[in-house]
Design brief:
seven-stranded antiparallel beta sheet, alpha+beta, 7 strands
């Protein structure tokens, strides 16, 4: 009986320790910091498994690239846009991913290629399943005061 209790305790402890383990490695920056069009670049982490890259291009375009998640891999591009931004979400995603692909090709180029396959009149531009049940692209806009943001989020179940 004591052996059974010890075995159950060890089994439970192993499940608890696996719950704290992440199935993916710590995120790595994807921006090429020496790229000639970047005027300001900053990298920081705000929690475990959440890396943020802050980029300002010489054109004035500002964006944040975030990588996060454990059971899911999330990659989010948050572009500063006009507060009254009302462009077609899919065509905007294609254009912005092409821009990012020039200085952060890891992930960005392949996402841009996937977006190129999506018609601009896709019926649900806010949620685009790429491989149903496995990976999705979410497109959104939000405002914070006088500043608008266009957000492209890629989510993959690991």
């Amino acid at each position: 009986m004591n052996r059974l209790i010890i075995l159950i305790s060890l089994l439970f402890a192993s499940f608890v320790s696996f719950a704290d383990d992440c199935v993916r490695n710590d995120p790595e920056p994807i921006v090429t910091p020496g790229y000639h069009e970047i005027s300001r670049y900053k990298v920081y982490t705000n929690t475990d498994n959440h890396l943020i890259e802050e980029v300002e291009l010489k054109s004035g375009q500002k964006l944040f690239i975030s990588q996060y998640g454990c059971a899911h891999f999330g990659l989010s591009y948050k572009f500063e846009v006009a507060a009254d931004f009302n462009e077609n979400l899919i065509s905007a995603a294609k254009r912005y991913l092409k821009l990012v692909g020039s200085f952060a090709p890891t992930f960005s180029e392949s996402l841009g290629n996937k977006m190129d396959e999506i018609p601009n009149n896709f019926p649900t531009p806010e949620l685009i399943p790429l491989e149903p049940g496995y990976d999705w692209i979410y497109l959104a806009t939000e405002n914070e005061g006088d500043v608008g943001y266009f957000i492209i989020t890629y989510d993959v179940a690991l």
